[in-house]
Design a protein that fits this description.
By secondary structure, the protein is an alpha/beta fold. Helices cover 36% and strands 27% of the residues. The protein binds adenosine-5'-triphosphate and magnesium ion.
Amino acid sequence: MIITVTLNAAIDKSLSVPSFRLGRRHRTVDQTTMAGGKGVNVARTLKTLGQPVIATGFAGGPTGTRIVEQLTAESILNDFVRIREESRTNTAVYDPTNGQQTEINERGPAVSSTELELFRDKLLYLARGADIVAFAGSLPRGVDTDIYAGLIRDLRSSDVMTIVDTDGDPLRHAVRAEPDVISPNILEAEELVGHEFNDEEDRVIAVREMLALGSREAIMTVPDGCVACVLVDAVPTLFRVMIEPREAVAPVGAGDAFLAGYVAARYEGRAPSECLRFGVACGAESTSRLGAGLVDPREIDKLMGDVEVRELAEPAEVP
Ligand SMILES: Nc1ncnc2c1ncn2[C@@H]1O[C@H](COP(=O)(O)OP(=O)(O)OP(=O)(O)O)[C@@H](O)[C@H]1O
Ligand SMILES: [Mg+2]
């Protein structure tokens, strides 16, 4: 079983509004509403890929009820802690006449210490039957930025693999708790290691630095694939995985699809390089679909041959 953790789950509302202008009244020509938040998107992709997954996190108020109902309607198993404050709704306005998208993300609920404790108990309970726990996304208000770090430490005794996709302080703390894998994008990775990357060599050194910070394995997603340092027979091994960038219909959520694909392949016990290849194919496929976490498994299979996986020689020592 795979568990995805979404502490700041949301209802993602997408409105299509032709000739959208500030200060005017509009009618939508199309609209969709989906449960969202990064971990929820990862769970959706995992479900589509046929993997056993339970989505957990916080859900509050009528919006929280809607999140749970939407997941249940999609047959995505879920077990959220119900909280007093209302979960967020994120609204995206898409203008089909010029392709521009405007997003308004709500601030999100505050979570109390009692609710946090309930969540911790639930996660430890769920983890007893799990192989992988994926933490993804931002934090709600009132939660310390070291929460992922604490949960990773709590899970250490339960023999599950932990993987983290977040940014800023939550990522900085999490990496010190020695998770199995982190999967930042370039900007998140630059912030984590504390400097910008100017070339390919910098990126390779950066994934080594992420291991030095505490993660057992590190994957940095880049628009044309990923750079990774993962264990092959317990030996840290560098890979550069590449795919020709496609004209994206919807690039948002590619990282979530990557993570889901990578986790699915790990769960199936595929070779490390093949896990990376599958993740990149999933990320690429997701860019052709509006709606986070949506992928077509047949299209992913077709893309697998377009992904090039290269093992790299050791770079210079980490400075
Ligand atoms: N236009 C594209 N064509 C092909 N593959 C893409 C494209 N955009 C992203 N990908 C793939 O998706 C994966 C994740 O991409 P990226 O680093 O952009 O994620 P991200 O910034 O975390 O996205 P998000 O946080 O919105 O989910 C990468 O492995 C990349 O190869
Ligand atoms: Mg991301």
